[in-house]
Here is the input.
Amino acid sequence: MIVDRFLSDSAKRTPDAIAVIELNRSISYGELDRLANRFANMFASHGVRRGDRVVIAGDNSIDFIAAYFGAMRAGAVSVPLPAGPRNDRFAKALADCQPVACVVDTSLMADPVCGQALTSVRSVFVYPHRGAWRNQAMPPGGIELGTALQAADDAPPAVRLIDLDLAAIIYTSGSTGEPRGVMLTHRNIATNTRSIVQYLRLTAADRVMCVLPFYYVYGLSLLHTHVYAGGSLVIENRFAYPSVVLRGMREHRVTGFAGVPSTFTLLMTRPELTGEDLSSLRYVTQAGGAMPASKISQWRERVPHVPFYVMYGATEASARLTYLDPSALERKLGSIGRAIPNVDIRVFREDGRPAETGETGELVARGSNISCGYWNDASGTNERFSPMGYRTGDLGYVDDEGYIFLVGRRHDMIKTGAHRVGPKEIEDVICQHPEVQEAAVVGEPHEILGEAPVAFVVPVEAAKLDTESLRAFCHQHMASYKIPVRFVVVEQLPRIPGIGKIDRGMLRSRLAESPRTGRTA
Here is the structure.
């Protein structure tokens, strides 16, 4: 149950099979395994020892994957972080985990804030950036990665680990916006990986399109599961051009695709979605936030032949907690399904007692995939982790068949008058309106109600969205206390870079900067 053995085991079984395909390059399992050995030996020769942290910051790539497994193979803890300049998470994460070595690209090292943070790191390995910074010279203090790798042996290092050792620290912004390092052991990742492989029925014949970044736990789970199964990863970092992604899915005969709600929303704007030959697709998965039921139905109309898995999870769960089998999708539309194999999820009321069937409470998860806590954050760990399990912060209920339905995040709940309202239940109704593409609801202070819902709405066509018509639609489909006091029409919703989740904190900040307390629009 040591994570880097996913790679070595697949390399032993099928050394010539294609492991990764990226732009203008591919690599077999045997070659990737030897490259990971080179990374491991390179790290060790520069003083990396068991338990040390190694940061890997860059776009999804073959080098990123080899460095990720190579750090573990050296006995270290892999810390994947976002790439590129102006990275506000990087410096804080470095100060928190204090890595012995980093693998970065020239664009990140050239950034003043990130570059300054890297001066405290003993060994900084730098590879050329492929984008606008491709001609950036090697910064002072950097070690040219290619040269260092050539000098390293490709034999496997002799480092002994157990599955309770840390494998990775994944930084997530959480509810505070500050980076928080989730500690994942080899056992956490391995058990979750096996469960996902089991319910998706992944084999060496599978080939997944990767548009989600590997520093994000959902994207990282694609890496874990497909390397474990001996399948292939197709890396595409140009999702800003969805037609390129769709074409790549056809050309590489991709069998699986994973996305967050905004991923599917963007793809549904492209006529190529129904024009491309996607007959090789065996399944798609969606996680990373609730996708309105109406949008799932629209996707199914556009791509009816492909089974659609709704999934739910958390970084603290090594990725996955529940899934809704496609066979139950129409009957249980809006549900996140049931717990995955080897996971138990219960719902608790505020007083700590188990909730009854249909009663809303907080979801608490138990399983071998659950993190041991947050790096350097004992108080946060004690708050969220206990013998009862991991407190997800998500509110929901279980129906009489055991299917789980989310209501919203505990800290996102809107207390309006005597009612508690989940943003999701309002968003689901708004998104049923034919002129609405996306919606996000947050609470703002209200002089009478205490708090009131405000809806940020992205129209299908800006000129056609009539907010009064939308308000009337809401009156027809929801209780009056749930109807937003105003609708703010925007071109797009703010999102967490790279991941695509809606940044509700930024929406609340917008309201704070221009409050309209107690008024309707």
Remarks:
- Residues 417-513 form a domain with the GMP Synthetase; Chain A, domain 3 fold (CATH 3.30.300.30).
- The radius of gyration is 23 Å.
